[in-house]
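Continuing the batch. This is chain 6 of the set; chains 1 through 5 are on the previous pages. Same settings as before, nothing changed between runs. Recording input and output for traceability.
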Amino acid sequence: MRRAVAMVGGVALATALSQFPEYAQQYTQRLGGAVDELRVIVEDFDRDAAQGGLDRSEALERYGASADAFLAGRGQSMSRTFDRYERLSVALAEIQGADPVERFQNLPLYLDTDIGARTLQAYKPAIPVTPEGFLYAFSGLVLGYLVTSAAFRLVVLPFARRRRGAYGRGI
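Output for chain 6:
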């Protein structure tokens, strides 16, 4: 019975872990789209600043020095946009250059919670028939089997001792 329960646990974890490559692929697509859109905004700003004879930092300083609350706020907003663009660009480059194990290990470093949440909302489960998908499925099968088997043994251990004690006394 322990083997059957452990196999069910293994298959369940294999199915769950096999979803990671698909989620990572969908997340990477969304991240790439966000980087592309932010690039357009950044390039437009830099181009407009250059037409005014300014570089990015000088243009942002001008926004910040303005007595107009709207312009000062817009400067802060653009500064956050530049920071986000840089952060997401670095994350995208790292994800694209990572191998399957690195991608899994470093997910918290790459994850933008806003993009991650939207990816999860629109996520469509699939079992990737790729080497990476098989790697995660096999790892899940083995890990799930071992963990479920160990948990099963811990749960039945008190009952097994009681049974052995009863048989050992000749009952």
